Every structure is written in structure tokens, then in C-alpha cells.
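U., I forgot to send this yesterday:
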Amino acid sequence: MRKIAGLGLFVGAIVVAMSTNAWSQSGNASGAGAAASVTGAAAPSSSPVPARKANRALRRSVYAAISKHREISAGSIGVTARNGAVTLNGTVTDASQIATVGEIAKGVPGVTSVTNRLTVQRPFGGQ
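Result:
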């Protein structure tokens, strides 16, 4: 099973590398410009650790801000952060909490945008 997963990851990496190479070549006709474009595209992916840490820290900050509001059950809310853009997924118990959670997330330092995909949780057996 691990071999299959590893093979899939390897094939995916090759597809991404070839797509990046084809994209940079079609955007620049000169050889030197194409080489500079490939180098520029590869530079951000060579050090994703600081970006990952920043995203994780922002995600934790949003969770902490939400958890300060006792009326909101943060256990069923998922937070994804990427370069300041936060996405909220999951459910809340009341429709008014959807906007409240979005406003709380917007108030966290470092958040540049919020995509609110929260829904109201319907009780089991309810209509």
C-alpha cells in the first residue's frame, strides 16, 4: 500500500514539475528569460516551512479567538489558513452564529480575508 501511495506522490510531483516547466516556456520565448522564470517559480517552493508555520500560527489564533466566545461551539468548526486567507468550514447550532464567527475571524491580526462556509447543524430526526 505504501508503494502505491509513494508511486502516486512521485507521479504527481513529475506532473507538477512538467506543468511548471511548460507554463514558463510558453510565457517567455527567450532562453534566458525562460530560465529566470523557472528559477523564480522554484524559489518559493524550496522553503515552505516558514509559510507553513505562519499558516499554522494564524489558524491557532483564529481558533483561540473563537473559543473565547462561550456561546459558540468551536468543536465543529474547521479553520484553514493560507497566506492570511482564512476559510471556515463546519457547523454551528444557530444561524446567527455564522456571521458572528466570520466577524471574529476577520478581527484576528494577520487575517486578510475570510471565506465563511459554515452551515447550521440540524438536529437528528428533525425536519
